[in-house]
Design brief:
Blueprint: E1 2-5, E2 8-9, H1 16-21, E3 28-32, E4 41-47, E5 59-64, E6 72-76, E7 82-86
Antiparallel strand pairs: 1-2, 1-5, 3-4, 4-7, 5-6
Length: 94
């Protein structure tokens, strides 16, 4: 999961100065929300970035890869703090 602003994303900064000055911090504490997991449904939750890099964050991006499936990329609102997934299993990547 990562955040995006007009300068780029929080995945792979080129230098420490670029990350601190321009790129947003990534969301933190990505985990399954307590009490939401069933056999095939889970709600993931996270904490919004505390540093926007000096420019408003324009979207949050979350990738979900079901076991044996292809990666699904979700562009989320900048105030989103959770996302429900259907078809999620223990070994799914995120």
């Amino acid at each position: 999961m990562y955040a995006v602003n007009k300068y780029g994303d929080s995945l792979t900064p080129k230098t420490l100065d670029e990350r601190v000055t321009f790129l947003p911090a990534p969301p933190t504490n990505l985990k399954a929300k307590d009490g939401t997991k069933t056999a095939s449904v889970v709600t993931m939750q996270w904490t919004l970035p505390t540093n926007n890099g000096g420019s408003p964050i324009t979207k949050l991006v979350l990738t979900h890869t079901p076991t044996g499936g292809q990666a699904q990329v979700y562009n989320l609102n900048t105030d989103a703090v959770e996302k429900e997934f259907v078809g999620f299993t223990e070994s799914s990547g995120h």
